[in-house]
Amino acid sequence: MSKPKLGDVAARAGVSPTTVSRVLNNRGYLSQRTREKVYDAMRELGYRPNAIARSLKGQRSRMVGLVFPTVANPFYAEMVYRIESFLADAGYRVILCNSDDHPDLEEQYFEMLLSNQVDGIITGAHSQVVANLPHVQAPLVTVDRPGTQKYPNIRADNYAGARMAVEHLVATGARNILHITSTVSEQNLRLAGYRDALTAAGMTPQVLELGFRTPLPRKRELIERYLKESTAGERADAVFASNDTYAAMALNWARTRNLCVPQDFQVVGFDGTETVRALIPELATVVQPIEQIATRAVQRLLQTIESGRQGRPDDTPSPHESDKEQQGSTADVFPVHLHEGGTLRAITVSS
């Protein structure tokens, strides 16, 4: 599908190309009705003006847009850093947009990036904005976004990693395993892995949902309150957290309560970023291959840019496609491993 041109807008609106140009540049007198006809035609066609006014046909901006929830999160910070580094090596600059998991803000960023005609976009934002876009007129790759079938999704095997961590906890004797997550949804593969592992063990899930945009102090308060106020029979003796930040909060609570870790209370996180592993080397966590994910995301985007295709880069199935990935999507799924730190008991093998 080719990009709509100014002449296409003029034909749809029933005006001359000169009139469309005048509307875009706000020059001369034009009735409000004429302006509305032009804007309606632009929306219907998905036309976006070239804000940086390239004069040579086919010339690239050598810029890529990055849309992620927030680089305040260690995982996204490391991911963005590696993506930017790989793009820089390929001669591209980036425009970084933190969406804060806010759909309206994310939509505005997409509009801004496409209006400036970036050569491509890599997004790890969580909302359904990308899934609902009728057609993105630039190559687009998603990172860690199950459920977006129109575009490639580069991610770690969240389901297998979660199940691996919980099965380890069960094998060490944990009986009340709390899962702390940002959101509860059908697309949350870490939650799915947790639940399936507990169901197989005949145990009851306990899930604490914090919300993505909840301030960190409030998240800490919610975690500590839940752990403190649980009844004796349901009190968690282990936590599997959907990220290392939540795991660190649970670990801090245990230490302030003088619980013996990991003998009395076990903690496992998810992500395994270099920053967290340097600051809390004892934290057990499911380690994502962030460098491999970033490399693959950039590779798929640049392949599409070089080929001149738009929107969805390709339909080539990944050799690592997960059984848990939705049918019809193109996913590159990378394996994870469990870092058995000092907050996780070792599995005792009977002779």
Notable traits:
single chain, 351 residues, alpha/beta, Rossmann fold, six-stranded parallel β-sheet, 12 strands, Peripla_BP_I
Describe this protein's structure:
Helix content is 40%, strand content 15%. Helix 4 crosses helix 12 (290-307). The protein has 12 helices and 12 strands. It starts with 5 loop residues before the first helix and ends in a 12-residue tail after the last strand. The strands form 2 sheets. A 6-stranded parallel β-sheet has the order 2-1-3-4-5-11, sandwiched between helices. A 6-stranded mixed β-sheet has the order 7-6-8-9-10-12, with helices on both faces. Among the domains are: 63-155 and 291-308, 3-Layer(aba) Sandwich (Rossmann fold), CATH 3.40.50.2300; 158-288, 3-Layer(aba) Sandwich (Rossmann fold). By secondary structure, the protein is an alpha/beta fold. The chain has helices at residues 6-13, 17-25, 32-45, 74-89, 103-115, 129-132, 158-171, 189-200, 216-229, 244-256, 274-279, 290-307; strands spanning 63-68, 93-98, 120-123, 140-143, 153-156, 177-181, 206-209, 238-241, 266-271, 284-287, 331-334, 337-339. Residues 306-333 are annotated as: Disordered. Residues 309-326 have a biased composition (Basic and acidic residues). It comes from Rothia aeria F0474. Keywords: DNA-binding, Repressor, Transcription, Transcription regulation. GO terms for molecular function: DNA-binding transcription factor activity; transcription cis-regulatory region binding.
